[in-house]
Amino acid sequence: MIRKHFAGFAASALALAISAQAFAGTVTTDGADIVIKTKGGLEVATSDKEFSFKLGGRVQADYSRFDGFYTKNGETADAGYFRRAFVEMGGVLYSDWAYQVNYDLSQNAGGDNRSEDGYFDEASLAYNGFAPVSIKMGRFDPEFGLEKATSSKWVTAQERTAAYDLVDWANGHNGGMGLQASGVAGTSLYGSAGVFAKDATNASEDGDSTTQFNLRGVFAPMHDAGNVLHFGVNYAQRDLSDTAFDGRIRSRLGMRGVSTDGGQDAGDNGNRLTLAGAEVTPAGAFDTDSAWGLEAAWAIGAFSLQGEYVSREVQADDDAYEDINADGYYVQAAYTLTGEPRGYKLGKFDAIKPANKQIGAWEVFYRYDNLSAEDDNGKFATVDDVEGKVHNVGLNWYANEAVKISGVYVTSKVDNAENSVGDDSGDGFVMRAQYVF
After folding, report:
1. Burial 245-283 (b: 16+ CB within 10 A, else e)
2. Closest CA to 89 of 119, 117, 53
3. Mean pLDDT estimate for the chain
4. What's the rounded mean pLDDT across residues 84-98?
5. Which residues contact 421 (CB under 8 A, 6 or more apart)?
6. Which range of residues forms the domain containing residue 162?
7. What is the CATH number of the domain that holds 405?
8. Residue 401 scores a pLDDT above 50
9. In the predicted model, what is the mean pLDDT of residues 70-88?
10. pLDDT at position 324, please?
11. 420: buried, middle or exposed (CB in 10 Å: 19+, 13-18, 0-12)?
12. Percent of the residues in the chain that have a pLDDT greater than 90, as a whole number
């Protein structure tokens, strides 16, 4: 039902825009003049900038083929799906208030098994009257990591680093709500602090939601496109005391098609790496779940280099259990063959804008992901010290500012784990067509 409402709203907005162009006439208002922009979506704003409304979105259609460890029987499988299909609505109210609503029709943004009608990826309200501090509330992703801060439209590889799979709760909203304060100091410092209530499926014995807080700090002494030096630190913690939860630490190793929503995947033959934990973790087994991370990036002209390190500790709350530890990292290098730099805004990378409208911008990249976990709880993991290593080699074509075509070859190797036929390595490729409006 919600999806129908959004579709109807989008259709009405489109009809309004077409009607405005089709019929000559006079537009009158009871306040300031109205300015209408159509580049990159439909945007309507008052000339005094007190109010604005923008309707846009993104569609990412993926196709992949993979074999080896990525399937249970080792044979080749494929997947075709919408990775994201967002309708996005945002703007300004009374100058100091900002709102953003992103609805994912593909069901994929929120994770596994979302509603068939779609999913609210974000629904937030922010107060900016205390500039340079912004106070944000509602449903949105907690801040943790450079790759997560960068929009999914403009991350270099189709999927963010597999190292994030170790700390997926740290930068995902999981259907919860949050309150966050963020701001800048000068031109080089950025920080945020937030508290969140989420994971209704992981509720405590009393029905309380899981409480989480996040901290992020960024120092970027160089912060212009093509001239970036960036350092960041992150910390997140959640309370699992008296909570039964799904404690599995799993990874798709860069190949989402093994198990995805929003379309066809490998089905029962898809294989995901389990590094630690158990699906049914009893209440009282663990207490504090904490994660911290480091991030760094450097860009000069058309070349960029970035990396992150994440570490997680799940502390046991009972003498019958042992702590679970995990850590991971990635290193990525990218180069734009046509010379354009990657965009950058304080705390995150942004779009590459083609200089030549005929040939667009062409970017090549390589990323290495490493993730591992140690779980000495015999009742949870059959093997400890599981490790995954993933190589990603890809090409991005920014045909224009709205269309991006991507391809990546992915190969992985795991230690102390294998599929049902003994494979401990796999490879495949992913193609993506992206349209942003």
Report:
1. bebbbbbbbbbbbbbbbbbebbeebbbbbbbbbbeebee
2. 53
3. 89
4. 95
5. 72, 73, 74
6. 49-436
7. 2.40.160.10
8. yes
9. 96
10. 94
11. exposed
12. 73
Chain center to CA of 336: 23
Distance of CA 67 to the CA centre of its chain: 25
Contacts of 143 (CB under 8 A, 6+ apart): 149, 171, 180, 182, 192, 194, 214, 216, 234
Residue 7 included in any domain: no
Q: Which of 362, 286, 270 is nearest to 325 (CA)?
A: 286
Please choose, from the candidates 169, 180, 153, the residue with its C-alpha nearest in 3D space to the C-alpha of residue 85: 153
Number of structural domains (the chain) is 1
State the DSSP string of 194-224. EEEEE-GGG-BTT-PPEEEEEEEEEEEEEEE
d(CA 10, CA 17): 11
Question: Taking 80 as the threshold, does the pLDDT of residue 20 lie above it?
Answer: no
What whole-number distance in Å separates Cα of residue 271 and Cα of residue 267? 9
Asked if residue 373 is part of any domain, the answer here is: yes
Given this model, what pLDDT does residue 267 score? 94
pLDDT at 172 over 90: no
SS3 of 29, please?
Answer: coil
Q: Is 161 part of any domain?
A: yes
